[in-house]
User: Fold this.
Amino acid sequence: MLKRKNISRRKFLTQAAAATAGVIGFPYIVSSSALGKAATVAPSNRIVMGCIGLGGQGTYNMTAFQNQPDVEVVALCDVNAGSNDYDMLYQFTGSSSAGLKPAIKRAQRAYAEKKPSSTYRGVDGYGDFRELLARDDIDAVTVCTPDHWHGLICVSAARAGKDVYCEKPLANTVAEGRAVCEAVYRSGRILQTGSHERSNDKARFACELVRNKYVGKLHTIRVNMPNSDPHHAVVRSNSFPQPVMQVPEGLDYDMWLGHTPWAPYTRMRSHFWWRFILNYGGGEMTDRGAHIIDLAQLGNGTDDTGPVEIFGEGRAPDDGLFDTFLEYKFECRYANGVRLIGESKEPRGLKFEGTDGWVFIHIHGGHLEAQPPSLLQESIGPNEIQLGRSPGHHQDFLNAVKTRQQPMAPAEVGHRTATVCHLVNIAMLTGRKLKWDPQREQIVNDAEANRLLSRPMRSPWHL
Assistant:
């Protein structure tokens, strides 16, 4: 059994209450007997995991870890008992049914198929993440909630002694991201940000070409982040006030809102569509943009810092529910002189331009282009900068849990990438050029913009 921090449920809930200011409601718990649970002790050679957030990406990550032979998923958590309106889930599961009960059924079915003639621990369900974190037997958790919950849950998980796989962006504000980093450092936990493009071999090779100056001196990184997918058309066509609706049965809507301002329920506020509302996400900038800008940070060698100047302009819906930017142009300048220039255009990816050539990483397709083409035939020598290769983003996290070595996308990396995304959004919101101090993590020329690095939290929640 992996060494873990032992803490009683009562003691942890007392500490969690101090950290997050009180428990809201009661957990939805599926009893062991109801699930036919025959044993309560995990095999000693496995990492015991819990999964928090079971929408599309959360269900995908649950399945990915459950398929690893060295993992046992024993607990799941979601504020939604179950519904059939997770619009983007079908691509992962073939069904739009998601939430706590459907995820438990999937997990139970997968284990039953693997062990048809033997007993196993079963899977427990919770509606409050603090109940899951209070369990002494859990080594690690996934955090796949909407972005506005990442910071609070990651901080609580680290304080509870759990290693964390957190979806990108690491947090929904710069201040929350820093709080996550501090909690991880102080607790000695492992955190992997779900920036899985960083584990792509071709992307890492492209960044090695840049870091070793095969393109000459790097001067410009061009980022393409189009808003041309069908769901962006849905956002555009629904950019008007949405009707107030009755909260669906089984959804703890107040818990879903968490620390954000109270707002009436409407279907397109939650599930997939929250990412286009600034209180809960950052639009394409922090969604797939976090993948692309993450690779820009890696290729530029700026994983532990960020740009010093940021400017952006964009267009967002001016009425209705959605308020993130759908079209944009932005430019960031780094202390090393490199310019990061972004636009909402095709093809999705990024281009590193140097004095002697360029290399383009296509996101999702994963293939590379280069000029001259011979760059892609180069070999990185043993005495050059080597960025290593990943066994896969999920397995990389599991290896880090076992070895206590940092994974490909640790907390600081995830935080610094998300910070660039947030700064661009802030620059577009204010319409002003921002001067950023990466060491102090402060906007030094604009007090109003600097206040947007954090947001007040609705009582009783706080970091």
